[in-house]
Write the C-alpha cells for this entry.
Amino acid sequence: MKRIKLTVAYDGTDYCGWQIQPNGITVEKVLNRALSRLTGEDIAVTGASRTDAGVHARGNVAVFDTASTIPPERFSYAVNTLLPEDVVVVKSEEVAADWHPRYQESVKTYAYHILNCEMPDPVQRKYVWHVNCPLDLEKMRTAAEYLTGEHDFKSFCSIHTGAKTTVRTIYSMDVERSGEVITIRVSGNGFLYNMVRIITGTLVEAGRGFRQPESVKELLDADERGKAGPTAPAQGLLLESIEYR
C-alpha cells in the first residue's frame, strides 16, 4: 500500500461543500467515486479543509491509500479523465504512510473577493460578493491589522463549531483593490468554521462606516459571535493554497 497526496481545485458552486453529506453531492464524494473506479478499490479520501457549500478552491489537499501500480505522479492525469469539469486534481505525489493533511504544520491562505460597484456583474456572480456601497479600504486595512497574530477568534466563528480551541494565528491579512474587485487575502495556521467569511463581513462593516476599525480589537476580547459582523456569502471565498512546513 502507498499513500497518495492530491492537490485539488474545484468550483464549489454546484456542491454541498467538501465533506460527504447524506443528501447532496460533495467534492469528496465525486473524488471517492472517480478514484474507486480508477483503481478498482473502495477509496475514501481524507481532506485537509472541509470547505462549505459554494466555496471554491485552487489548492485543497487530500490523501488516500491504494495498492494500485499507477505511478503516484500519474494519478492526477488518470483521475481527471473521470472527474466532472468543475473538479481537477492539479498534482499527485506519494507521501509517507502516516502523513495526514490535517495534522501537519501548515499555512493556509484564503482569498475573499468583493465586487464593489453600483451594479452586479452576472458573469462574476458565482465568485464574488456584490457590495454596492462605497468601501473605505484604509478603514478595512486598519481593522484587519488588529486581527493579525495569535488570538482567540471565538467572536469570528460559527456557534456550531466543534473545534476544541478557538485560538488561531493569522500570519498576514491584506486588503487590496484592482478595478472594482476588492480582495481580502488572509494566511494563518488554521481557520474556524466560517471564520474568514465572518472576518470579511466585519471588515465590510468597517469599510461602510458602520463600525470603527478599533472595535475589532474589542470583538477579540468579547468572545461573542453576536458582536461581530455578518457571515459573508460563500461564493466569494476561495481556498488558494495549503503550504506544509
